[in-house]
Amino acid sequence: MVLAAIPTVGGLLGIVGFILLLIAVKDISDYVGDKSIFNNMLISVGAAIVGLIVGVFVVLGSVINVLVNNGMMGYNPSVSNIPQSQWMSLIGPALAAFAILWVALIVSAVFVRRSYSSIAEKLNIGMFRTAGLIYIIGAATAIILIGFVLILVAQILLIIAFFSIPENPPPAQTSPPPPPSSTTASTI
Description:
The protein has 188 residues and is mostly helical. It has a domain of 118 residues. The longest helix has 35 residues.
């Protein structure tokens, strides 16, 4: 996912990396027997997708509204005929879309952190917890752009955390069996 910044093929590499991350989290969730790890990651993905879709519809709806109100949906449109005040009216919806995306990123980051914290606890690798913490701080500060650097740092720490998993991790922790009941003990 760190390679997503590469021009032309970066988007594809980012998607492949994200899918591999989901597979890895699902495998860890199954291995340790804690379904909440993968469920939190899925909720995170859902929140991000919903925020992105809502943000795009807010901006797209506003642009279409400006174009329709100025007769630009016909055969020979010229956007140069749209008054500047109409273009300025798109600033509010654009800011609203960015706010929606920011809130969705924070909600998504909360669930990412929950997932990574659970992995850290189950596998006893604190780097997952650190990556989750930096990720949520990055999401919260993304509004001032420094957050995107922190999210990149969190992704790098996540790589280190995954490489810190031993080749043969300890068996998943299971709860001990319940003590025998008094009726079972008396029949023995």
